[in-house]
Structures are given as C-alpha cells and as structure tokens.
Amino acid sequence: METKNTLNYIIISLILDLVIISYGYGARIKDIAGIRGVRDNQLYGYGLVVGLDGTGDSVKNGFTDQTLANMLTRQGLTMKNKTFSIKAKNVAAVMVIADLPPFAKIGTKLDVTVSSIGDATSLLGGTLPMTPLIGADGRVYALAQGPLIIGGFSVSGSSAKISKNHATVGRISNGATVERELSYDFDKKRGFTIDLYQPDFTTCDRMARIIRSQIPDISVKIIDSDSIAIHMKDSFKRNIVDLISSIEELDVPVDSPAVVVMDEKTGTIVMGENVRISTVAVAHGNLSIQVREDRKVSQPLPFSPAPPIVSSPAKAGKGVTVAPGGQTAITSQTSIGVSEEKRRLMVVPKGVTIQEVVRGLNAIGVSSRDLIDILQSIKAAGALQADLKII
Hints:
- This protein is α+β, with helices and mostly antiparallel strands.
- The chain folds into three domains: about 140 residues, no CATH class; about 70 residues, Gyrase A, domain 2, CATH 3.30.1360; about 80 residues, no CATH class.
- Helix content is about 20%, strand content about 35%.
- Strands 3-4-5-10-7-6 form a six-stranded antiparallel β-barrel. A four-stranded antiparallel β-sheet has the order 2-11-13-12.
- β12 and β13 form a beta hairpin.
- The chain starts with a helix and ends with a strand.
C-alpha cells in the first residue's frame, strides 16, 4: 500500500510539473538569471591620443601639457629649468574604459572606448599609446594601445562647420590585453546562487520546481523573490560546471506584473502581457480654439480729403487743418473659431487578454497621444488593472 501511494505521489508531481512547464511562454534560465559573483568588472585609465591633424587640445588645458611632459620624462627626455608647453594641437587627453569579463585569462583581448576630456574637436586619425587600465581596487588589470576608429568626422572653418556622428569618441577593437587575472575557485565549490534579473516570486518558484524535476541529486532552496540556492549532494557525480550548464539550458515560464509604459514625448505605448481592463464607457473629444489675426490696408479714393490734423492738444477743440489728399491706414481684424469633436460614448468591453484590450481601445478610434490621456482616466476610474509608468 505504501509503495502504491508513493507511486501515485510521483505521478501527480510529474503531472503538476508538466502543467507548470506548459503554462505561459518559456525562457532559458541563462537569459533571465545569472550566477552570483560571475559578472563583468569595469576598468578605466587616463592617457593621451597622439597624431591628430590639428584637432587636439589647446594650450589652455594644463593637464594635457603636464601629461605629455610626464610621458616624455618616462622615456628619458628631461627638460630642466624650462617650462614645457605644447605648441601643436596634435595631442588630446582622453579617458579609456573597458569591461573585464569573468574568467578572463592573461592575454585575453578586450575592446576599449576612448573619449576626449579636453577641448579637442576630433580624434580622427589618432593613436593611443600604451595606457594602463585599473580596476576599482587600484590595481592594473590590462594595457590598452592602438589606432582609433571614429566612424565620423568634424571639419570647421571660420564661419561654417560640418560634422558626422561623434568625432570626440573612438573605439579600439581588441585594443587592450589582460595582464592580471581575477581569482575564481569554482572547481572547489559545492554550491552556488542563482539571481533573477527581474525579481518575481512566481518566476522564482517555477524555476525552483523545474530545476528539482529535471536535475537529480541536488538541493534547491528559494531564498527570496530574487535568489535560489543550489547545493550538490554527495551522490552528485558531475562537476559544478556541468551542473551550471544543465541549469542554464532549462526553460522557465516567466511571469511579470501588469505594466503600461507610456512615452508622452513620442506617443509610444507599450503594454505588458498581463494587462487587464474592466468594462468601462469612454467618450473622448478634442476641443480646438483657433485665433487668427489679419491685417488689412485701407486705401482712400483719389482727391479724398485728409483726416483732421490737430496742431496741439490744447487746440483740439478749436480747429483743425486739412491736408490735400487722403491717407492710407492699416487695420487689424481678429477672427476666432471654436470647434469640438463630437464623439459618441463608447463602451470598452472587459478584456482578459492583451489582444482584447487593444481591440477594445482601438474601437474608440483615437490617436496614440489621445490614448495616453484615456488610459490615465481609465486608471483613475479603477478599471485598468495595471501599473502606469510615464517616461
């Protein structure tokens, strides 16, 4: 009897797992979560770009002058009792940044981005001499060097300027070489933690269930809405790299909160899958007021008498002088028009899917900008079951 109950429990568990797996769309775990501690590290450095065609920093930038003097001093060129100054604008001070990927070994090539920090107008044709790249701990992890690729240009004269793209930022593909490795002891670990990129209790629970059902001899513990702890049991025969590879390829139904994102600047509206709307009646009409100013010229007939001319305010009531001929006058005429759209009261039916919600909103027949106002009003009426985010 006990064996039969155990068998029934296993069958029910498998059926529930299949139902959970088939619900919603699936995404690989490696696309929605990462292994804690396995991440990129940012590197940065300060250097010079040389070989510019008169588009470098001006003599007003003291740090460029001093940096070039220090670099030449390290090369054995000393200038005692002299004030060193840059006379040609062929040098520019730059900031160099790169990302050090996890498990990068000595000799690994990295892409670097070079940005001007002075008043250089273009880095076109420049070359970056050897520049150390340091991490947050102040240690050198890579060395960068090479010619820059700008992908644009900037040409200016005394009264005109032509530019394409951004000429003060360049890139060097494989321009840095790793000189120091980060230490990882993955081969000695018996467990690790998976962190979701978008924390969610439902997705986290589904992930834990699928991992338990697909991979034996491991313990899976949900820590919170963001993290799942994985630990290998003594009976687990494979290494941790094989385990991580197997977990990353599993598909998990992803759940997300109902969100409507609206960009009023461009009129863009993006709705999440779980957006729901209750039955609501909507009437939307635009009120437009137009004010127009027209100027008209009044031209008198030939030989018409001129208007009275008052010689002074004191004599305004005693007499006037009349000049021969008429006088042209400019008059203003204001016209005001008011128009209001006559919209019927439309009933937006209850929508249980995103397609039904969109179909109901499209029945109103308004533009995307008007739809932003309508969605805000529906949310205020309590008929929109979603979070509104305006960017």
